[in-house]
Amino acid sequence: MIEQVKQIVREASEIIKRAGDIAENTMAKEGTANYVTKYDLEVQKFLMKRLSETFEGCHFIGEEAGCDENPVARGLTFIIDPIDGTTNFICRFQYSAISVGVVLDGEIVGGVVYNPYRGEMFWAEKGRGAYLNDTRLQPQDGPLSSSVVIFGTAPYRPELRDDAFRLARAISDHTMDLREPGTASLSICYVAAGRCSAYYSPQLSVWDYAGAAALLQETGARFVRGDGKGALNFASKVPFLAGMPSAVEEFLRVERETLG
Q1: Which of 165, 204, 207, 222 has the fewest Cβ atoms within 10 Å of its own Cβ atom?
Q2: Do 231 and 119 share a structural domain?
Q3: Beta strands, E only, 29-119
Q4: How far is residue 45's CA from residue 171's CA, in Å, rounded to a whole number?
Q5: At CA 158, angle to CA 188 and CA 197, rounded to 5?
Q6: Same domain membership, residue 58 and residue 36
Q7: CA-to-CA distance for 92 and 72, rounded, in angstroms?
Q8: Residue range of the domain that includes 229
């Protein structure tokens, strides 16, 4: 199954690579500094069409189509973020991704996250491991200080940013440095690739993390609610934390000490 999903994602990426009039085709969405382009809509439409043709009877959750509270109870569901990092896309920052999570009967069984600008395809399938293109990913457990931490700042929700920056300041004392490249799915994949010790965001939705979560599962990394209140269970608009076990525990400890 995952090989077919990877091929369809590659095909969809051609829409991103040939985009030329992005600024002229950008619309505001709910929230602050939250945008959608015609290319987000085109990529999602393409993915849904091709996946439906390939996997008859499948279901979809997509960023541009909304999200139910319990969308993946039965059957095969694809959770799609057609262009994760839309602001980067608009600004031609070239750090955006197509993300597809594969869920079967309520369980994440695969995922594909593709950055077409760098030709980096992160993917995983249950029981087969996690990969960057053809290289298997095997990150090492370690503390926050072993690497950088990618720290999201909730640009769509300004009321969350004061606490986010307080926490960022505290976490910065425990790590090499902080980064925020602006694309959640890729940042989560960077945890699985050992490129950072943890990733945190004050708020994510299920399409932001579903594709990359498959890689975390296959590499022994953890992903939890970023406020330490248990499992995510496909929730949206919740704080999110991913990292290897030692880094997650350390992060949550610092968060408790900082925010209470």
Answers
A1: 165
A2: no
A3: 35-37, 59-62, 76-84, 97-104, 107-115
A4: 40
A5: 25
A6: yes
A7: 34
A8: 144-259
Of 113, 136, 159, which residue sits at a domain end? 136
Helices 2-17 and 38-54, interaxial angle, to 10°? 150
- Could you tell me if 123 and 205 lie in one domain? no
Classify residue 228 by its DSSP letter. S
User: Which residues have a Cβ under 8 Å from the Cβ of 176 and sit 6 or more positions away?
Assistant: 145, 146, 147, 148
Contact status, residue 132 vs residue 52, Cβ threshold 8 Å? no
Per-residue pLDDT tens for 210-256? 999 999 999 999 999 999 887 888 888 999 999 999 999 999 999 99
Radius of gyration of the chain (CA): 17
The span from the CA of 257 to the CA of 27, in Å, is 40
- Give the whole-angstrom CA distance, residue 242 versus residue 11: 29
